[in-house]
Amino acid sequence: MIYICFGIPKTASTFLYQLTEQTFRAGGRRTKWLRPPFRPFDSVDNYFGAIDGALLARLSESLESGVDLVLKTHGPLHPEVSRLIESGSVLASASVRDPREIALSMLDHGQRTRRWRFPNFSQYRTLADTLPTIDAQIENFQRWAAAGARVFNYNQICFGAAETVKEIAAQIGVAVDPETVLAKFRKRCQIGQFNKGVAYRFREMTPADSTMFLARYATFYSSLRFETAAADRAAAASDPCASRACGEMREILTKVRRYFTALRDQRAVLRA
After folding, report:
1. In this model, does residue 73 exceed pLDDT 60?
2. Can you tell me whether residue 87 is helix, strand or coil?
3. What's the confidence (pLDDT) of residue 119?
4. pLDDT value, residue 118
5. What pTM value is reported for the model?
6. With contact defined as beta carbons under 8 Å apart, do 137 and 9 qualify?
7. Is 242 exposed, middle or buried (0-12, 13-18, 19+ CB in 10 A)?
8. Residue range 171-197: average pLDDT?
9. Options 3.40.50.300, 3.40.190.10, 2.60.120.10, 2.40.50.140; which CATH number does 2-271 get?
């Protein structure tokens, strides 16, 4: 089985990808960690900027019997992949978040990468800089969702992770104990691309900026509900302005930890 995790950047898409892989394993399924020639040697995710039918065919041919593959992408939906999802031949999810919070997280990422002189996200200095990317990614999300990808929003993933795992397990067709899956992520240092992890970050915005986003994406906001009861409780107990964004060094160390965890997990898969 191939499962594709599409996510708008900064929507807990990496965490959802990790939860999905771990749900497969907790359900007794074997998953593959891609290595060269498909992914660089130091990669910790099965990430592709674009996924098309030809790539899926090559990946399928490389899979050993009884092994599943979870992929991650931020890329647009290819027509052939859309047909595979619609037919049930490929499973998929799509993660989303309040655009205001996506923008704020993009700015955090840009600030930390500029400090280290890394190129990724360094172009995002102001809220206006984030808008073209958010516009394009919302279109991507809508296509994935329309094709049948299971939609998860940031607040579900982060503050209702047990229910998220149950939904993934039902989609895959396995029975798991959500706590077994979540035990792998009790320490935030095991969650890739973790930034602040607070609910309703839009409260950090000025009223004028918030109003601009609500107007620009009014149709999008009307089609989705981002609030959850668990996020309500988390927001009531936190001050988003008091939370500090994670630095680049923490992300580098997290990647190293994830690499060795993936190496250990893959060895266990090979022994199974």
Report:
1. yes
2. helix
3. 78
4. 80
5. 0.87
6. yes
7. exposed
8. 80
9. 3.40.50.300
Angle, helices 248-271 vs 99-115, to 10°: value is: 100
Q: What pLDDT does 112 receive?
A: 84
Please give the backbone phi and psi of residue 152, each rounded to the nearest 5 degrees, phi first: -130, 130
Segment 124-130 long-range contacts (CB within 8 Å, at least 24 positions apart): 127/103, 127/209, 127/212, 130/102, 130/103, 130/106
* 3-state SS string for 141-204: HHHHHHHCCEEEEHHHHHHCHHHHHHHHHHHHCCCCCHHHHHHHHCCHHHCCCCCCCCCCHHHH
d(CA 137, CA 9): 8
User: Domain boundaries in the chain?
Assistant: 2-271
Task: Give the pLDDT band (50/70/90) at residue 197.
Answer: confident
List, in sequence order, the alpha helices (H) in the chain: 13-26, 53-62, 79-87, 99-115, 127-147, 154-159, 161-172, 178-182, 207-216, 218-223, 229-236, 248-271
